[in-house]
Amino acid sequence: MSELEEVMVKGDEELLGEHLGVFTARSTERRILKAAQDGGIVSAVMIYGLEEGKFDGVIASVTDPDDPEEPWKPRPVVITDPDEVLEAAGTKYTYCPNVSVLKEAVRRYGCERVAMVGTPCQIRAVRKAQLLPVGMRHVPDKIELLIGIICMENFPYEGLKTMVEQLCGVWMREVAKMDIGKGKFWVYTDDGEVKTIPIDETHPFEGEPCHVCTDYCAELSDLTAGSVGSPDGWSTVIVRTEKALELLNEMVEQGLLEVKSIEEVKPGLGLVEKLAQAKKSKNQKEIEERKELGLPEPGKVHEQL
Amino acid sequence: MSERAEIQPTTRHEGHAKLVLYVDDEGYVERAFYLNTSAIRGFEAMAKGRPAEFVQVAVMRICGICQATHGTASAEAFERAMGIEPPRDGRLLRELCALGNRIQSHVLHQLLVLDDFVEDEKEKVEAVKRIQQIRKIGQYVVDVVGGEGIHPPNIRIGGMAENISESARKRLYRRLREARELMEEQHEFMKEVVERFAEENDLDMDEFGRHDQPFLATHPTYGDPDRLDLDRVVEVLPIEYYGEEHKEEAYEHNGQIPLYDGVPVEVGPRSRYVVFDGVDPRGVLYIHILRSQETLAAIDRCLNILEELNTSGKTLAEWEPRAGTGVGVHEAPRGTNVHIARVNEKGIVEDYRIIAASTWNFPVVEKAIEGEHQDYAEVIMRCYDI
Amino acid sequence: MVRLAYVQLAGCCGCLVSLADTYERLLDILDEVELVYCQTLMDEREVPECDVVLVEGAVCLNHEECVEEARELEEKAETIVALGACASTGNFMRYSRGNEQSAPTHEAFVPLTEVVDVDYAVPGCPPAPEAIERFLTLLLEGKTELLEPFAKLAEGKTEYCGCDLMYHVVNKNMCMGCGTCAAACPTRAIEVVDGRPVVNEDRCIKCGACFTQCPRTIWPGDEAIKELVMGGEEE
Ligand SMILES: Cc1cc2nc3c(=O)[nH]c(=O)nc-3n(C[C@H](O)[C@H](O)[C@H](O)COP(=O)(O)OP(=O)(O)OC[C@H]3O[C@@H](n4cnc5c(N)ncnc54)[C@H](O)[C@@H]3O)c2cc1C
Ligand code: SF4
Ligand code: SF4
Ligand code: SF4
Q1: pTM for this model (two decimals)
Q2: Which fold has domain A158-205?
Q3: Which of A111, B90, B285, C184 could pair covalently with C213 via S-S, beta carbons 3.0-4.6 A apart?
């Protein structure tokens, strides 16, 4: 059994989705940890994959911090150079259409082994594109790895801006990092200031379409990373496919990742499961309410036409 | 007294068509009619009143085998109508995109005609596999450069929507080198099977299906409206061309017949070689060999373009609508493809005309068939890529 | 073995080329069926009785042969599949208005789904080679649950176009901005702005790819994905 497999445990698959195991990890590289949101798993996997030639392109989300108008407005990018991966590190709490450049990656960039990071809904979108690729000519077989990020909800840009500028009192252009955790929304400025608001105050700004989504852990990913369950600076990682396990094993063997059992850390797997459950029940209820109003159920829109 | 024979539908080509043959006692064709029986989808009429951008997108759907040529000819027509100058790299990429299409289309045609020349199943399967490998590379060019292998959306009025990445350029180069090797093999194969066919059937490659019509071509690899004098082109209705005495046939032909200096002209690979390299046209079977040779030349030109291309260069000119009329000409795999657009100051299409490549060849096919035995009618028709 | 026919009505042959763009797998696909008719590929001149017919192209109501050919399929084929947008949604043919000099009266073009009792419709202009291959595999294996969306689309209720994407996804508060529609659109008519699609109507040809590809409109079920995509089949 590998070092990684020794620390892996299994959680509730009803809530987390089918998986081979869950563990806590972080990158061993300072430059990655510095740029990344949590344990830098996503960035580390992308860099490793590109360097080893496992991927020839990765799709992630970047912002343009020098944009005077919308410094935190993300846009999807295709990255082929491992040195550019960290430019995309860090969470942007607003919609970024990563899947929109999937075709560009295999066309304009000629990629044959693409990795993409995405929210659970984006991972789902790509999986469907692999199963029923009606408008996805020559894309399905070019997808090498799907990295999911745990997600409770996302925010429209103007909503996020209101949270940051009105509620936290910080200009978007001054923001160095945002985070959600421990019941709060956190804003870190370039000057080292930290502002928070209770998570409850962010609810009104959540994107409504997120409320019909019952996938918390990107259940159809190859591997998923999130902050919940692990201590600050560490990530909770869910491995689902053999392919992802193999890659992570290699990374651990090469000393690129530091891993721990999630049972040794606080708050632990229980919190991940609790929040997954919360998302599922709350949003299932929302779907039922919408149905009563005569609105379509997600995934069944065509049936109502 | 000649007898009337019909072959309907003719097979192994794009679209719907039929052959009407008047043959003598020994089966030799005295008069042939090659009639397009497809429903006319009315692209010219559909264009009217629509924005230029829509029309350029829609007309690609005239033909799913050679869409890039329609996209290109249309973009060229609109650019000339509105005084738009595509940037150098956009122009190069456009040529590359359409050549990728020429590669796949030419060998696809070789796949369609296989049954005319090869009986042995194993030989056939091998050829199909090789053709599919070559097509895959041709389509890869169109996918990468044009955005989609079928109906490439990157071809735009003003150039190309985007440049390719440096890594894609390298990949294209590598793949095209592979294609060249495969194509050399395929070229030898085509020569061999066509010559074998001629021999077995006792046909003279120089004379079989030879006709006296002139040849029209505007450019070896792209298209050049300056080499097409539109004043010498007329499009006539079938009834005008065939005359009252052949009313029956005329009414069955959907489409107009383009003539140059009042007569049918051949377009396509052989025309391009006749016009630009001065080759002797010989008989129709020779078209197969020239088409194959032209595929090799297309690959070479693609490799050149990749060397010339600046992958960080601008590819799309910004433009404002402006009133005007423009002619776009592109050498489709099948021959000279002409689009003529008139737009108003808002960029709305007021008039649109298309002379698709194969329409030139319809009456030429008839000439080539006439004088030969009726058994070869379809074989001759398929020398042209209809 | 399943007897398969391929019929081209008022279409461009692009859907057939898309099938051919399975490249090395084309021969394998054709090995799985008995191809009994395909005018572009073989010399058979009349559509025989068959199990499945793939139909490309719209129907021109003003062209008798075209209507007849389409109608006859109901008798000749067990299962009728509208392949591609012209046959399933109407595609850009929705803009046909007749008055073309060479056939002025050819003006009414409708998708096959409006004229014939179609079993399945696969939109897209053209549908991706991999989609056609997948569809055929599911059909041959009799995985009818997974074919249900295609059966539903065959009812031809609408064009499933960029407008429908707005009406039935964005307007219904269901779009989460993944960008799939933009990638799927074969004409690049869609741009995602502020997390929601904007459809450029000058480029939209009503092919139905965006609507069909959107994960929020039609969801095939997690199990199918785990079995057919994540089960290692694609890798
Ligand atoms: C909208 C949103 C909500 C989230 N909610 C939760 C939550 O409720 N619980 C939880 O545990 N974790 C949540 N996360 C995940 C968490 O914030 C981290 O992204 C995750 O832990 C990975 O950390 P990392 O250090 O490995 O990532 P990094 O190495 O920093 O890499 C993160 C990657 O995600 C990409 N990315 C960033 N923002 C987006 C975006 N909006 N859309 C698509 N890709 C993006 C980046 O380009 C980067 O490649 C959320 C993330 C997002 C984007
Ligand atoms: S759907 Fe597109 S590719 Fe298929 S026949 Fe119609 S125009 Fe051609
Ligand atoms: S927006 Fe694009 S994908 Fe959607 S129907 Fe229009 S052309 Fe097709
Ligand atoms: S595919 Fe659907 S959910 Fe995704 S951006 Fe388009 S409309 Fe929205």
Answers
A1: 0.96
A2: Nuclear Transport Factor 2; Chain: A, (3.10.450)
A3: C184
